[in-house]
Amino acid sequence: MKLNTTIVLTTLLLLSMFGAGLISAVWGFSLGRQALQGVTQPDVRPTNNFLGDREGSRQGEAVQFLKEEEILKQVENLESRSAIAQTKRA
After folding, report:
1. pLDDT tens, 22-31?
2. Cβ(65)–Cβ(72) under 8 Å?
3. Cβ neighbours of residue 58 under 8 Å, at least 6 residues apart?
4. Which residues of 45-71 are buried (b: 16+ CB within 10 A; e: fewer)?
5. Which ranges constitute the DSSP H helices of the chain?
6. Helix (H) and strand (E) counts for the chain?
7. When comparing pLDDT for 3 and 24, which is higher?
8. CA distances (Å), 74 to each of 22, 36, 37, 88, in order?
9. What distance in Å separates the CA atoms of residue 5 and residue 11, rounded to the nearest whole number?
10. pTM strictly above 0.70
């Protein structure tokens, strides 16, 4: 019985691909395990106790948006200050 070289090479390629995948999986698992070795789960849920015990906490209040005109005025003031400072340096 004669061996077909195409079948042998295909089988060799599949086995080498399987071996490379297995090696990379083990290597990735070990790297991930080492990376997370010092990480522990938090003792409490931070969302429940986040500023919840303090008086005057803002839990449940809506966010106050700034007016665009006020922001633009502040930016223009900062730009004019920096322009004045640059002219004084020159």
Report:
1. 999 999 999 9
2. no
3. 51
4. eeeeeeeeeeeeeeeeeeeeeeeeeee
5. 5-35, 46-49, 68-89
6. 3, 0
7. 24
8. 60, 45, 48, 21
9. 10
10. no
